[in-house]
Design goal:
Blueprint: E1 12-16, H1 20-29, E2 35-39, H2 65-74, H3 78-84, E3 89-92, E4 96-100, E5 103-104, E6 112-115, H4 119-131, E7 136-139, E8 142-149, E9 154-161, E10 171-174, E11 177-180, H5 188-194, E12 201-205, E13 210-217, E14 229-232, E15 241-248, E16 251-258, H6 268-274, H7 282-289, E17 291-292, E18 297-299, E19 304-308, E20 319-321, E21 327-328, H8 336-351, H9 360-370, H10 372-382, H11 399-413, H12 417-427, H13 439-446
Parallel strand pairs: 1-2, 1-11, 2-7, 4-14, 11-20
Antiparallel strand pairs: 3-6, 4-5, 8-9, 9-10, 12-19, 13-16, 13-17, 13-18, 14-15, 15-16, 19-21
Helix pairs in contact: 1-4, 1-8, 2-8, 8-9, 11-12
Length: 464
């Protein structure tokens, strides 16, 4: 069989992992394959509940604007359904009290929105939609332990049932295409080595950032604030971060973060004490009035990791990687769910390209390209943080000049809507980063005055 991922070649596709990236990839593959099988090591809960296979499931997730558009294109009407489930919609900068680079952002009218409901709620809705397709089959409680085939072509996966009393023998599930969506801890490098193929080179950038998260009952409304959330953004001179965002039903999720050596504690009283390290007591004051509803959950795996399947190597046809198995970001930037959807759209377009027969290599390059802007944002910001390690932490020849310019962008975005609006469009993946270099933006960045910003947290909205 030629390296052809077109409709005639792909009778059966297997997706490893029932993550958002895996489910959305299955949604697209069902348009081309006769059958798609999603293999998931967990057993899915019946409702919108957390599951062990999503290590960040109890932590903060936001669906930024670029992801909203992609979800609606993949699953028409999705955002309307998510809103009907009660997922809060937060406008920025209007609804947020935000501190960044020593400045409080003016709470001007919103130019972008994100949804901040619980991750299990969104994943459950996706699962309901995707698995309703009769072409998509689900194998639960089963882990992938290897690939079948050789260095020229993958021909299936080796599976083993999980759980007490399960058969420990492996079985083979044949496939014309295998998609790895098993997450940042993928074992694909070992699987490929076992069939005589080469693993991709990994680019890594790790700041050592860690965070802790806890759910709180929001304080009763007070007349001094109408903010929906709070955001303290860390930078190279101020290494602590905090995010407070609504979950719905009067609950907020609070995440505190710090770099290697200054990780937030998971002990109950110590978590609130850690909030006092922020550059302003606004977060600590909010916590003192809120009621804790959950334990503190910690998370440490925040490195940016990109696996370069696009580079030459002895790798087989019929095997693709997507989602965090391909490119994983520091989760603090809130890009993962959006990139999962954008990657599924890239898969759809590559498979349906009328100008060329899709091959493993061309489709894999398209998937990597879908994550490029998010990587540039996440890795670009983390590269400046003290103590960053990894081969991707080394600055390139243009990094200093671009970093200087983007620093001025961030400085002016806090108070100047002419800079802030395109800045948010780029961060929410609805416009390319080049929008920050457009003539009108560049003039404001290079020659415009620095707009006045609040000296204290703007607890009430501002005009214009």
């Amino acid at each position: 069989m030629a390296d052809d991922l077109g409709r005639r070649a792909t009778r059966h596709a297997v997706v490893i992992g029932g993550s958002l990236a895996g489910l959305l990839a299955a949604r697209v593959l069902a348009e081309h394959a006769e059958k798609v099988t999603v293999v998931e090591r967990d057993r899915f809960p019946e409702g919108p509940d957390a599951r062990p296979g999503v290590p960040q499931g109890r932590h903060l997730h936001v669906l930024i604007a670029g992801g909203q558009q992609a979800f609606d294109e993949l699953l028409p009407g999705f955002m309307k359904e998510l809103g009907e489930l009660g997922a809060p919609k937060v406008g920025i900068p209007e609804d947020m009290v935000q501190w960044q680079n020593g400045k409080w952002f003016r709470r001007n009218p919103a130019t972008a929105h994100f949804y901040s409901g619980p991750r299990p709620q969104l994943e459950w809705l996706v699962r309901q939609r995707v698995l309703a397709d009769p072409r998509v089959d689900l194998v639960e409680g089963t882990e992938t332990v290897g690939l079948t085939g050789d260095s020229s072509r993958v021909r299936g996966v080796r599976l083993r049932e999980r759980g007490a009393g399960a058969e420990k023998e492996t079985r083979v599930l044949e496939a014309d295409l295998v998609v790895d969506a098993s997450g940042r801890s993928t074992k694909a490098a070992d699987w490929l080595a076992d069939i005589g193929a080469e693993a991709p080179h990994e680019e890594i950038l790790d700041t050592g950032l860690a965070y802790g998260t806890r759910v709180y009952r929001s304080p009763e409304e007070t007349p001094d604030t109408d903010a929906l959330g709070y955001y303290i953004v860390p930078n190279p001179t101020q290494e602590y971060g905090a995010v407070v965002l609504p979950l719905g039903d009067g609950r907020h999720l609070v995440t505190l973060s710090g770099l290697r050596g200054n990780e937030p504690p998971t002990e109950e009283g110590a978590f609130e004490e850690y909030a006092k390290r922020m550059p302003h007591p606004v977060i600590s004051d909010w916590l003192s009035r809120a009621e804790p509803l959950s334990p503190v959950y910690g998370f440490r795996k925040t490195a940016n990791i990109r696996r370069r399947y696009d580079r030459p190597g002895r790798r087989p046809a019929g095997f693709l990687a997507t989602g965090d198995a391909l490119c994983a970001f520091n989760p603090i930037y809130g890009q993962g769910m959006a990139v999962a959807a954008l990657s599924a759209l890239a898969l759809r377009r590559a498979l349906a390209d009328p100008k060329r027969t899709p091959t493993t290599r061309t489709v894999q390059k398209a998937l990597l390209a879908a994550s490029q802007q998010a990587w540039d944002i996440s890795a670009g910001a983390d590269k400046k943080m003290p103590g960053a390690t990894g081969d991707a932490a080394r600055p390139g020849p243009m990094d200093r000049a671009i970093g200087w310019y983007l620093g001025r962008v961030q400085e002016r975005a806090a108070g100047d809507p002419a800079v802030g609006a395109p800045f948010r469009r780029a961060l929410t993946l609805t416009a390319p980063l080049s929008v920050l270099f457009a003539p009108a933006v560049a003039r404001a960045v290079l020659f415009g005055p620095v707009a006045e910003t609040p000296t204290e947290p703007p607890l009430r909205r501002t005009d214009g």
